[in-house]
Structure formats: structure tokens, C-alpha cells
Amino acid sequence: MADSIRNVARTPAPRTPDAPPGPRAAERPPAERGVAPSLVPLLSEWVPRQRWFAGKGRPVTELALASVTELLPYQGAAPGLLHLLIRVEQPGPVTDVYQLLLGLRPAPLPPVLAPWAVGVAGDGPLRGAGVYDALGDPRPTGMLLERLRLPGRLGPLVFSREPGAHIPAGLTSRPLSAEQSNSSVVYGDQLILKLFRRVHPGANPDLELPLALARAGAACVPAPAAWFESTDLADADGGPATLGVLQPFLAGATDGWELAPAAAARGDAFLAEARELGRATAEVHTALARVLPTMVLRRQQIEHLTALMTERLDATAAAVPALLPYRDALAANFARLTALGDAGRTWHAQRIHGDLHLGQALWSPAASRWSVIDFEGEPARPLAERRRPQPPARDVAGMLRSFDYAARSVDAGPDWARRTRDAYCAGYAAAAGADPRREPELLTAYEADKAVYEVLYEARHRPDWLDVPLSAIRRLAAA
């Protein structure tokens, strides 16, 4: 049974046997070709301003349309809908591919769509059309839900549905405004569609892992109901790129980042909640280790791991001088891990969440349990790296750092964070049968690596928060 689950999880979107191959760009209908003069000038101005654009601070040297699929024909009064993959090149050289759903209406756009406007097409076949981000328009997003309800293929786009998934028709849609690296649309408070903005060849972990966990019976992870992919952006094995995932929407749930600081501000301990969150994390790790491949980290892998940690430390210390007094002590932490590997110590590695923190956990009062979401990993890291087996201690360290942030955000003091961190680890140990605190060298190294990342981020984006990771750096350097 485990082997069959592994095989399914690695290929989450099987091809429809009788589906014709996607048309090559030169064979696609005229409505899907020749739109570059209409769209590229507008997108070159609009895309770099969006919150989900990863290349802020660097000029765009080229923007090109990599794939265009007409989902709704534009016929004057009736809105049209285009699915785009765009290739953005920046100095470095850096090349990224982004996903867009563009609506088309006669200009000027209705006032309700003004916040979503891209601009008015000036040249080409769409001349005079009002172009906008279609996620703000219920008609195109409703059509997208219908595509997900009825599996099939449209050009390079493949729509798949999990057998037995309940997807009602005609649900009213609304976009979520709190997204940053991706975008989401909620349908009738029953389902949520997550659209990946920056896309990569192959399966996204945010489909791959929840699908494997759902089929393994892990109740703490919402099961994917449907998803869609693009064969125009495939990996070396021909696996299509994941574009979006439809999952149950946990109405009434509150994420841990709202709950934990609020509890700390009230003086509440949050120990029971932290313990249950530790149990949920362990449930995820145990299920992933059961149904997906694992490995053992030996001397060579450990040396590679600590070398990367040391490189990040040195680069950050060069960019943020406040880290320099602690550089040698942190490097010594990493060196201790290397020495253990040299002495024959090994560690278990498996698929993990990859970006675990309080914001990735939702507490549902109706079910009285935590749900773990957003398995994409750190979007800035390459997809191959995010899909690589890693020690579960990395996820644990991420959550421990999040408790630290929760305490400091409301000046709750280090004792609140320490007690909550201990409760989380105790809950994890009770469910997993292994306490992450029993491997202090590994956990300390991952905590330090995460805090170094936070130092660089805060120095660049939120200097007022820089003391939060620096306080952890001082503690870890003295460990």
C-alpha cells in the first residue's frame, strides 16, 4: 500500500489517456497568438509593482509571453479571460515564470474592477480593451471553478479532480487580500483556490504533500479537491507545472499568528495549544515518512549542510554588521554538527513542510484541532531544494522561532516563549516518540540558520524588528 501511495504522490496529475496533446504555439487559434503587442507593454509596467513579484529592487530586462490560453473568448460586451505564463528576465541573470489570469472588458472598466486594472491595450488584436487581474471578477473565477469541477484539458492546461471530492457548482467567489507570494480565491466559504504566481517546472509541494497526506489518512491537513497544471512548463521527466490547488476552506478558523500573540498579550500561557500544535506537526512528519521516500544523512551530506549554513552566516554578517560579534560562536555550532558527522553520527531525513510557522497553522473551534497548511516551502528557494528530504528538526526550529516572534511582538518576555516552546516540543515528542530537544546540536544549528535568515530579512525590510532575531542569535551563540 505504501508503495502505491508513493507512486501516486510523485505524479499528482495523471494524464487523461484520450486527451490530445496540447497544441504548439504556432498551431493555436489566432486569439491566443499575436497578443504580445497588446499585453507586453502593460505587463512590463504592472507586474513589477505587484506584491507577489519576487524581483523587486532589480530592473526587468525582458518580459515575454511564454504561454497564452484563451479560457473565455473576448467578444466586446462579454468579458474575456486569458491564462498567461510570462517569462521575466532580470540582471544576474535571473529568469522567473509567473502565472496571470487576465480579464478583458471594453474600456473603461466598471468602478468595482478599478483596483484590479492593468491598463488599456494600445496595439495589436486587443486594442482598446480594458485589461485587469481577473481574480477580482466573479464571472471568470466562477468559470475557473467549473473547469476544476469537470476534469479535462484545454490546450496546455490540464484540470484534475480527486475522486470523491465534493465541489458544488455556482459558488460565489471572493478574492483574499492577505496573500503575498501567491493569490487565493474563496468560493462560498466552502472551498479555496490557491494560485501560484511564481511557477516552476514539475509538481509543487503544496499539491504533492497534502495529496500524499490525505491519501495516508492525515486528518490535520486539508485534502486537495482539484488542481490544474501546465504542460507548457514541464520538468525534465515531463511532469507538468502545478498552477493552482483547490482545497476545503476552513471557515471560522484562526491562524496561530493571531492566537499566540493575543494570548501572550493577555498573559495566557498558550501551553495546551502549543502542545496540540506539536502533536499535529508530529502527525504530519510521521505520515510523510510513512508514504514518501526517506534517506539517512551521513558525513558527506552533513558537511554539505553545514557548509551552506556557514555560507549564509558569512554573507549575512557581511551585510548586517550587528551579526559580526556572534559569527564565530554560531559557526562553532555548525562545526559541532560537522564533527558529529565525522564521528559517524547520522540523522534521518524525509519530506517536511519546509516553511513551518504559526501563520501556517489554523485552529478550528468546531473541530477543536489544528490544521497545517501551505506546504509550498520557502518560495525563494529552488523547487528542487524544497522537494529534497530534510531533517524534521528544520520544521521544529521554524515553529520555535515563530513562538519567539509571537512573544516579542507584544513584549511578553522570554519566559512566555520558553514555556511555549517547551510545550510544543513535549507535544511533538508525545506523538512522534522522539523529542527534538534530545538532539540539541541539530536543533540549535537549524534555529541559528533560521535566525540568520531573519536577521537579513529584518535588516532589509523591517529594521525595527531586527532585535527579535538578534536576541535569539545571542541566546544560540551562548548555547
Description:
The protein has 479 residues and is α+β, with helices and mostly antiparallel strands. It has 3 domains: 2-19 and 139-248, no CATH class; 25-133, no CATH class; 254-477, Aminoglycoside phosphotransferase (APH), C-terminal lobe (Aminoglycoside 3'-phosphotransferase, Chain: A, domain 2). It is built from 13 helices and 18 strands. The strands form 4 sheets. Strands 6-7-12-13-10-9-8 form a 7-stranded antiparallel β-sheet, with helices on one face. β17 (361-364) and β18 form a beta hairpin. The longest helix is centred in the C-terminal third of the chain and has 22 residues, at 440-461. The model is unreliable at 1-31 (pLDDT under 50).
Structural class: alpha+beta
CATH topology-level fold name of the largest domain: Aminoglycoside 3'-phosphotransferase, Chain: A, domain 2
Low-confidence stretches: 1-31
How many separate helices? 13
Query: Termini, distance in Å?
Result: 44 Å
**What is the CATH C level class of the largest domain, in words?**
Alpha Beta
Major β-sheet strand ordering:
6-7-12-13-10-9-8
Q: What Rg is obtained from the alpha carbons, in whole angstroms?
A: 23 Å
Q: What name goes with the CATH superfamily of the largest domain? A: Aminoglycoside phosphotransferase (APH), C-terminal lobe
Mean pLDDT: 91
> How many distinct domains?
3
Oligomer: single chain
What is the total tally of β strands? 18
Largest sheet: 7 strands, antiparallel
Q: Strand portion, in percent?
A: 15-25%
- Portion in helices: 25-40%
**Coarse shape:** globular
**What is the CATH architecture term of the largest domain?**
Alpha-Beta Complex
